[in-house]
From TrEMBL:
InterPro entries: EgtC-like, Gamma-glu_amide_hydrolase, GATase_2_dom, Ntn_hydrolases_N. Gene3D superfamilies: Glutamine Phosphoribosylpyrophosphate, subunit 1, domain 1 (3.60.20.10). Keywords: Glutamine amidotransferase, Hydrolase. It comes from Tribonema minus. This is Nucleophile aminohydrolase.
Length: 356
């Protein structure tokens, strides 16, 4: 039964690596605009997101349904989406907003933790690209490759995502948030894709939302949205070529063997061939390390020392775990639509899909 009914968004890049965005508050399976888009749009790189505006385990209210809250978010040619939640967001939001530079802040239009994460990411990316170019930039769209050009390197995009995760986890732990945050984040500039699977808790029982990947060459889409490779696993090395698909869940249950679960606290980094936008140049995994985690807060017994709305966090760890255990599993209802988008790409696309 469909679960994620609170909005659908797709971003695709043209040959000049400029981002184009479609969003709707309608469920993916009932959106004629998305159906038309999937049958007529071609690109070497797609981002797709199906939103569920559910309350988190701390009982915080869900962000309202509206186009302004639908992922992916785009700033110039940088696209971003999130699956998970910043734990205790209502209380730590002012602390996180203080981490955003003045040039980025006016771009925030929605009310979600996800869009604020994006603004923190843009701030970190701006700092990294400014440092590498030996100067300062006035906005996060500029880089060593020129304003809005999308010529960031894949390591720069990954480093900014790592620093964003570090800012969020350090802030929530310092504030005494007793529960971990799940930060499955995806970002692209049209040339590279970086996707994280992260949760700031050491316990093996505390896993972030799932994240899978598959790659190969000779991609085709069969019935039910199943992806089939003529040569599975091809194109994952430094030789390049092939296609990569990253998704919250396998798009089809009939070929699970071709999908690999991304390890906890790991990034997937995909870099396009510098000579051809429609080919994978490199694909690798990058660990995410941060020395702060929610376990330390629980062990010390700290409960929101710096947050005044304490009554909102009365849920115990056991209640939070129970809520997480009973949360509905995201449906695969929109897999066929996203797979159709992938099938319309050139023979060697980069594709990333996330659900939240």
């Amino acid at each position: 039964m469909p679960q994620n009914a609170d909005g659908t968004g797709v971003v695709w890049y043209d040959e000049e690596r400029e981002a184009h965005r479609y969003t709707s508050t309608a469920p993916a399976w009932a959106d004629p605009g998305l159906q038309d888009l999937s049958s007529s749009t071609k690109s070497s790189l797609f981002f797709g997101h199906v939103r569920s505006a559910s309350a988190n385990v701390l009982g915080e209210s869900a962000a309202p349904v509206g186009d302004f809250n639908v992922h992916p978010f785009v700033h110039e040619n940088i696209s971003f989406m999130h699956n998970g939640a910043v734990s205790g967001f209502a209380g730590v939001r002012p602390l996180l907003e203080a981490q955003v530079n003045e040039a980025v802040a006016p771009a925030i239009q929605g009310t979600t933790d996800s869009e604020l994460l994006f603004s923190i990411y843009l701030t970190q990316l701006d700092a990294i690209s400014s440092k590498s170019s030996g100067g300062s930039s006035s906005n996060s769209g500029s880089s060593s490759g020129g304003s809005g050009s999308g010529r960031y390197t894949a390591p720069q995009l990954a480093a900014a995502l790592d620093r964003t995760i570090g800012v969020v986890t350090a802030t929530t732990v310092a504030a005494g948030v007793p529960h971990a945050s799940s930060l499955n984040l995806a970002v692209s500039d049209g040339a590279s894709v970086v996707v994280s699977r992260y949760r700031n808790a050491l316990a093996a029982s505390e896993q972030p939302p799932s994240l899978y990947m598959t790659h190969g060459s000779g991609l085709r889409v069969g019935g039910g949205g199943c992806l089939h490779w003529a040569r599975p696993g091809d194109g994952g090395g430094n030789g390049g070529g092939g296609s990569v698909v990253v998704a919250s869940e396998p798009l089809c249950e009939n070929n699970l063997s071709s999908w690999s679960l991304v390890p906890k606290n790991t990034m997937v980094v995909v870099e396009a061939d510098p000579l051809r936008n429609d080919r994978v140049g490199r694909l690798w995994l990058r660990p995410v390390y941060h020395g702060v985690n929610a376990d330390e807060v629980r062990q010390r017994g700290e409960r929101w020392a710096r947050v005044q709305q304490r009554s909102a966090w009365a849920s115990s760890d056991a209640a939070a775990a129970a809520a997480a255990a009973t949360a509905p599993r995201a449906g695969l209802c929109s897999a066929a639509v996203l797979a159709q988008l992938a099938s319309n790409a050139p023979p060697s696309p980069l594709t990333a899909t996330l659900r939240a």
